[in-house]
Amino acid sequence: MKRFITIKDIARELNISVSTVSRALRDTYDVNKETRERVLEMAAKLNYKPNFNATGLAKRNSHNIAVILPFITNYYFSTVITGIQEVAYENGYNIVLYVTNDSPDRELSIIDNLPITSLDGLLVSVASNSDAIDHFEEVMANGIPIVFFDRVVNNMEASKVMQDDYNGAFEGVEHLINNGYKKIAHIAGPIGLTFTQNRLKGYIDAMTKHQLPIHEEWIIHSGFSQEDGKKDAEKLMECKDKPDAIFAANDRKAIGAMMLLKSKGIAIGKEIGIIGFTNDPSSEIISPSLTTIAEPALDIGRKSCELLLKHITKTYFHPQEVVFPGRLIVRESSVKES
């Protein structure tokens, strides 16, 4: 079977990045004329053809949008989907949902097997540790717009919608400090994700501002589940110098940490303060209730879909980056008893 030429082949021949080839083929403003001409010449030489039915796709009339995300079983992503659906349905678009189960390999397989002739655009929240962007560049080079939300890629020109992870983390850690906690640990998400890095930086900067110690063993990277939170808290309790508070990357991890500490007879709040990030409904009903940074999941879903529809319907619509602020909600887990 004859192998189709891809933008990876063009990039290899010219010794430039796939991202540059993609932008040149889309004639974006940040590629100079000489580079664009070289790319077009090589594309013609290799007989490169976009991998879609040009007649059907160029008109963008399928009115189908693909949504690719890590999970559908947690509060945050189910709320994001609700926001996406509201905007999509109001504008006559259908949603086709793909779930990666937080697997980069599964994400790549989904992209490789997308029914690209029957989709007008993609909304994507990348899988944990998914740092490869070639497959997304290939899709965009073929004329399909992508908007990333929540978990976004850094080195790609595309619209992105997220919450203010840095300032949310900074405010949450500073809240712990102002309530008398001085030895604060951070149970973080996977290292490769942008928002993991931003929340980590917020934690570090808040600790640095108040001249508090940051110990390497107090920063633990793992997944996002309640079980991950339990395991992370167990590791913290094994430290010779134990923390007196924990800032968790999300509420599920925070609740897992709380369960572990309670099983050891440690009083949440009085002995160890805890703060999460999301405002999952469970954070309000657990005892003691969990202090958290509320994420505007519904707004993120709506805005992501609004931007994608603009990319679909407008000939020239430059990528935008939208950042929504979080909101500190103080509950029992971060308040020391007198």
TrEMBL record:
Pfam families: LacI (PF00356), Peripla_BP_3 (PF13377). GO terms for molecular function: DNA-binding transcription factor activity; transcription cis-regulatory region binding. InterPro entries: HTH_LacI (IPR000843), LacI/GalR-like_sensor (IPR046335), Lambda_DNA-bd_dom_sf (IPR010982), Peripla_BP_I (IPR028082). It comes from the Bacteria. Keywords: DNA-binding, Transcription, Transcription regulation. Residues 5-59 form the HTH lacI-type domain. Coiled coil: none annotated. This is Transcriptional regulator, LacI family. It comes from Pseudopedobacter saltans (strain ATCC 51119 / DSM 12145 / JCM 21818 / CCUG 39354 / LMG 10337 / NBRC 100064 / NCIMB 13643).
